[in-house]
Amino acid sequence: MSPDYLAYVLEQLEPMGGITHRRMFGGVGLSRHGLFFALIAEDTLFLKVDDLSRAEFAAAGCEPFRPFGGDKPMSYCAAPLEALEDPEALAKWAGKAIDAAARAKAPKPKKPKPKP
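Structure (tokenized):
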């Protein structure tokens, strides 16, 4: 990942405020207020998706993140290219990713124990 691409993505996300980043596994992870919502790998911004948002990303032509060329995609999709040129549009897509990250972090309801 090039330092220029990281700087560009951070600049585009700056209006959202609270964005932090850290290097990991040859890429960079992005968080906002403690929620890990995106990663940058090979000069591509990937945003967190879940069952509620995956279809919207797919409809926008966003490819899933497949680390190391694997068959199984992770829960991240490439950000729409046109959004990378518009901070307002990118903030909307990043917001969807932050929502997905919040849902993933939320405590899961406990399953009722079977009665003896």
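The chain has a mean pLDDT of 90. The chain has one domain: 3-105.
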